[in-house]
Task: structure prediction
Amino acid sequence: MKIQGGKKKVKVDYIKFSEEMRMQRAKQRLSQQDIASKMGVTYQTYARYENDIRNASINDFLFLLNMFELNIDDFIMK
Result:
């Protein structure tokens, strides 16, 4: 997915992001269902994000960054 900010397009490293989601979820001792419920998505949708089968929508991506207190700059491909 490309995020447009003005005229500049950036790419998100979803592989790195999915790995970090998995680590943060385990660290907080949450299940995939716990997070899916907080997001308002199905367990399967969240599992696909975490397993890098599906890219999160921009809204879900930003929600997860906020929930896990992650910095967006760590996941922007340079």
